[in-house]
Write a structure and sequence with these properties.
6-stranded mixed beta sheet, alpha+beta, 8-stranded antiparallel beta sheet, about 30% strand, about 950 residues
Length: about 950
Amino acid sequence: MTAQTPPTPPFRDQRLPFAKRIDDLLSRLTLDEKIGFLHQFTPAVERLGLAAFRTGQEALHGVAWMGPATVFPQAVGLGATWNTDLVRRVGEAVSKEVRAMRARDDRVGLNVWSPTVNLLRHPLWGRGEEGYSEDPKLTSAIATAYTRGLRGDHPTYWRTAPVLKHWLAHNNETGRDVTSSSVRPRVLNEYDLRAFRETVEAGATAGVMPAYNLVNGRPNHVSPYLREHLRTWTDEDLLVCSDAGAPSNLVDSEHYFDTHEEATAAALLAGVDSFTDHGTDSSRITARVRGALDRGLLTESDLDTAVRRQLSVRFRLGEFDPQDDPHALTEDFDTPDHRALAQETAEQAVVLLKNSTGLLPLAPGTRLAVVGLLADECKRDWYSGTLIHRSTPLEGMYERFGAERVEFAEGVDRVLLKASDGTYLHVPAAEAADEVRGAEGALDPALLAGRTDLPALTTDPAGTELALVDWGEGVLTLRAPDGRYLSVAEDGLVRASADQPGGWVVQETFRLEPHENGHLLRHIGTGRHVSVAADGLRVAEADPEIFELVVVEHGEDAVAKAASRADVVVVVAGNDPHINGRETEDRTTLALPAHQQRLLGAALAANANTVLALVSAYPYAVDPADLPALLWTSHGGQAAGTALARVLAGDVSPAGRLPQTWYADDADLPDLLDYDVIGGRQTYLYFEGTPLFPFGHGLSYASFAYADLSTRTTDDALQVSFTVTNTGEVTADEVAQLYTRAVDPTVPRPRRELLAHARVSLAPGERTELTFEVPLSAFDFWDVARDGWRREPGAYELLAGASSEDVRLRTTVILDGEPAVPRPVRERGLPAADFDEQSGVAIVDRAKTSGDAVTAAEGGAGQLVYRHCDFGDGVTEVSLTVAGEGTVEVSLDGGQALAVVTSKASGSGPYDYTTLTAGLVAEGIRDVRLELRGPLRLAHVGFAG
């Protein structure tokens, strides 16, 4: 007899819709198997033929951490292109390389944790390199383009499944897992949520990752906004993946819950579906889930919801239909097209900030001095892949202008370190092969160990000359003549062993600390001083060596010599992405480090024809007064040097635009933890000072004329058209930008706000008409008086031009809307967080699950103002819902206090609210002002009588 073929289970039947297939598969999983699905590393279910699955593959600007891959410009550089079609093609190339790499290395995952859509609110944020822009509209446009490229065009099957990072209001590394971002409702809806919302609504997003921080006193990993906002924006099953270690932080660092079982249950119920914790070890998370089930904190139905969302992603990735998956055989990796795209993207990311004398493009035959600490560097960052190809600015200039016409001076200080016994630090010869950090790939590169196969440094009478760079604030790197950086491995020995500074904890940075008649050399990664031991130099707790720093050559002297012999000097300055500003570390200043300022000053003193090319992840406050030309580009990936050289030579006209405001001074910046962009007058939307360079700024080798501005209003949109003509002599791109501002708003509104943009390429004399269809909802704001969106009727100015400040055309339109109405405080009272103005106040959590309250920051004093409160025929009593100890004073229209309420609830918890009352006589429409003192929390103000 012939055995019958078992029937195909419904979850394998591609004729059925995914939802029914998921229902079937979910019904077949045991409780233990469902629990296993909740960790980042989901085990295989062999009895059902399910493979193991991993959430998370970094792919911010190329496939990261898994070895060699095409490396594109940093995310902030992608934002600087202002080119959505280009960024979509980058996303497409990256996703194809993910697929190709996955085919030969199953550690590579298809659920990619990119892009980062956190807004670049503050230029000192350490992870600014990961975001696209300070503007939510531009950020969502670039993020949508990248996710569409990552997803692919097939209607059913996705090439990769992108997850947006980091939900929500996350712009500080300092105390990032314990600090709370106080985000008022207007900022929440008009700014922080907006970039996520428009990207999710575009339909190419598989999920989000909550951030480490708290928002309004509540950790993002238990945020009600996941349910109240995120999951209402789409019908897709969005997968929410925790950030690494964040589930444990809920107890260990944030102390928000007493037990891990409570924390895990709360996160799952809030909407976290996949827990990234303890690396590949899932045992602790699964034990916590079982504990939560045993305690009745979770039900199996709660687990089903999370497992369903993961399965939805896996079905869309074609895992269960390999024969139908159009992406399964993708082999595109390091192709000529990808290399060309990397160069095109790097070229389009270059921003020309100043060119006052026409020094650029460089004239044919120009003799060049290429100088600076980044002149011969092609830097990687934490989220880079390993470079297959590499082009530094110096190499690009050699290639473009000829090595015989280019002189190089790096500008490092050449030093010897003399020990107390008169000998000098010595780097022994090494015969081991060169190694590039991360070339072999790693699921967690933070675990990569330093090299121990090279000899430790010693001392001898002659010593070895080292290249010293001060990256700012006394943070130094020391490099041996063979190009290897001094580093410390786990055995504590100091070796010349690293190809570049890097790693989760950088082991290649030091400080020289004055001590007696010399210096102690402190290794920053371990915090220990360097000592001379029998087995070589090592870091140790005791017996630090006292070194004398002997300077053989100052970097500025070498730069001055090269500059004096050149027609034009190109100074390449900027940052190392692993030092003084990166994940885990915010910057402390906008200033260019002193070492690089010395080099720039030396070049200018020797040759007035000096071009400064900033290659950096962040804005700098540089004085451009004496510079005839200034450019900026992010770290541009594998083709960075070629791209910069082609722009300098005029082969490509620069058309990158600044994606964030460049401020002139640290004094222009708000506190890093001040997330109130409205009250703090932050970003180009509200900043009232004079920026060094404004949002959207960027020059060209061509000139452009704008004309023929016209508008037409329909029921739900505003159509805006104008023409742009290339009036220059070279083919060039122009980034035409359309802004608006409310002419006479009743509440603070942006000075101007980006509505739309287009990057167009025009030949000399060519003219094009641009038409933008702007939804009328773009003119709405969040009205706290009605807890919803509202468009004010009246005049709105439209501004078209080449930047937020370079306005070429303007007109005014009158739009219909809903007029403002006073707050009906007799009926609704005042939710405390729905203020119009605040000073010294933080928003906190009313309860652990949902709701907001306010408190005086750090238990001091704070003020709140609620405008246009309608008391009708009159009230005689005010009631305040409060927790904790403190005092609230109530006044009207800025007058004296009319009611004082004191809470003496000593010993009560922060969520133990009570309602206190006092007499208050008021009628008509008045402004209510509250003065808070002490650690009291205020949730609501009511009126009666």
